[in-house]
Amino acid sequence: MAECFPLLEQLDISYTGCENYDSYVDGVEALSLALIKLRKVNLSGFPINNQSLFHLLNNCRYLEEIIMFWCEGITSVGLASALRDKPTLRSLSFSFGNREMFNTAQLIDSLVSLKDLSSLVLNFLNISDELLYSVAREGLPLTRLVLHCCTGHSYAGIFYLLSKCQRFRHLELFKTDFLNDQHVVQLSSFLGDLVSINLNYCKELTYAALFALVRNCPSLSEIKMQNIGGKIVGNSDSLVEFGVYPQLKSLYLGNSWLSDEIISMVASIFPNLQLLDLESRNHISEGICEVLRKCCKIKHLNLAYCCKVNLLGMNFVVPNLEVLNLSCTKVDDETLYVISKSCRGLLQLLLEACNGVTEKGVKHVLENCTLLRDHGYMLHTARR
């Protein structure tokens, strides 16, 4: 491969299904010597070991981004040795094959030696506050941080890092169990440049955190808060004080508590939404029509598993809707008739496990939604 494409700058050999580590050591070294212009490589699930990784990072002098999830042959010692003083590396995404410690002194020293590191993605790792303190003290130019299902650290470490490094544009703290609303209020004051945030599965959070983020982060356009903990505080009248935040474009609130009344008010607060994900919200029914009426720019709407959703009141045009997911809902042919009149621009309609839909309803949609018929994708199955 290297002989055929010697000028490759990006290489993805992730999850190839290979199992024999020993047979790939020489191959990786030969590859690294041949691909002298390589800038990005994805080795996730690839049978690479410490020696191969060292050769790769040592020989590929222009390497800027490396992705290594579930590389069981890599240890913290091997990673520390390979990363040491790699001035070109700007992005590191990593997880061990098991939840090995990612907070050894040697590994921390190697990490903070990456003076141009702007993106750090750590998945399923046992990190420490000391690692976060060290990154903050070194002043690495991070603009993206992902701590996905990581343990071993505390709010003190997160607070220190974000207070010292205030250029983050993308932040993920997926399943950070200790994070609460007050923490988010405090952290949001350091996140003026933030564009997207993922707080999925942070069970201590309520929607007070959502409003703190949009109030304090003027550039924020995407929020993911699926599977969070508590109900929204107060009722729709109490939400009026939050004002309007037109900068938010994508909102993921799946599998958490919301009522028709509240979701209608949320639509008023975020009128420029283009993507709304409400998967598994069992309390929403007719309120979704108010959302579509108020958020006329919506292109992507996910209502999968919203078993009570009711679109029969959608007696108006939804001009920009392109993707609609109604899988595992109780929609029927009558609903499809309404959709065919209001959503003529659909390009994707998902109706998996929708027993109330018949071939007659599907045919009616395809006859009226010509873009869907001629250029789009429609999937309909029934529950077994």
From TrEMBL:
Gene3D superfamilies (alphabetical): Ribonuclease Inhibitor
GO biological process, one term: SCF-dependent proteasomal ubiquitin-dependent protein catabolic process
Listed GO CC annotations: SCF ubiquitin ligase complex
InterPro entries: Leu-rich_rpt, Leu-rich_rpt_Cys-con_subtyp, LRR_dom_sf
Name of protein: F-box domain-containing protein
Natural source organism: Trifolium subterraneum (Subterranean clover)
